[in-house]
Amino acid sequence: MNPDHTLIIADDNSRDRSFIIEVLAPRQLIPAENGAEALSLCTGLEQPWVITDIQMPRINGIELARRVWETKPSARFLFWSQYDDEMYVRALAKTVPAETVYGYIMKNNSVKVLEKAVNAVFDECQCWIDPQVRPVQARAHKHTSSISDLEFEVLIDLALGLTDNAIAERHYLSRRGVQNRLQSLYIKLGANTEGHTLSDSELINVRMRAVALALQRGLINAFELQKEEEKLAAWIKSRTINQG
């Protein structure tokens, strides 16, 4: 790594932030306590280099990278996270510009592996993906199991407890359109009741089963669902005002 190139360390966990600063010293390091602070720091740099957590308040690591890459596609990011959730892998795949150098490493790795990832991204200009994340990447891109953006929308609505009619209203769809998306989602998650006996299907609530399987795959999690709850509350409020 070029020791003269400033490296931003974005993590809302002070212990993790201090740890990585200690590992990478004496390089030029600037700590940031959240994504918003890191975004502000990136604004003044021609080619930002950033090591960032993913789950952070205000702006998460992937959204931080997306905003920076909009104007500075040569910026380099190493995502350092304790989560390999498929929802983050999906979001990142849609965010990374062509030919951009980035990395993804899990926090449970040794210092030696962390240094290897840092050197690959920032010194050798090579992408580095944690072997623990690669199977999730493969599943996210597999045609028979990958979830489309439209299917992901209805998955979020299922997890929020919305009815078919509410989903249709929220996304300007027909009820049949919602049911078609749900059926496709159920098949990809393996939640559909086809192949079960009648008695089995009577025991299974396919909507709840889909949410459970999505949680297991990391397609949704409590942290991100809290943000979706806020969006839902805003939609309900707007709907109430419009109907009033």
Short description:
It is built from twelve helices and six strands. By secondary structure, the protein is an alpha/beta fold. α4 links the parallel β4 and β5.
Outline the structure in words.
It is built from twelve helices and six strands. It is α/β, with parallel strands linked by helices. It folds into two domains: 7-141, Response regulator (Rossmann fold, 3-Layer(aba) Sandwich), CATH 3.40.50.2300; 149-243, Arc Repressor Mutant, subunit A (Orthogonal Bundle). The N and C termini lie far apart (60 Å).
Number of strands: 6
Taking pLDDT < 50 over at least 5 consecutive residues as the criterion, the unreliable ranges are none
CATH fold field value of the largest domain: Rossmann fold
Mean of residue pLDDT values: 91
* DSSP helix fraction: 55-70%
Strand share of the residues?
5-15%
Describe the main β-sheet briefly: 6 strands, parallel
Task: Estimate the global geometry from the Cα principal axes.
Answer: globular
Q: What is the total number of structural domains?
A: 2
CATH class of the largest domain: Alpha Beta
Count up the helices.
12
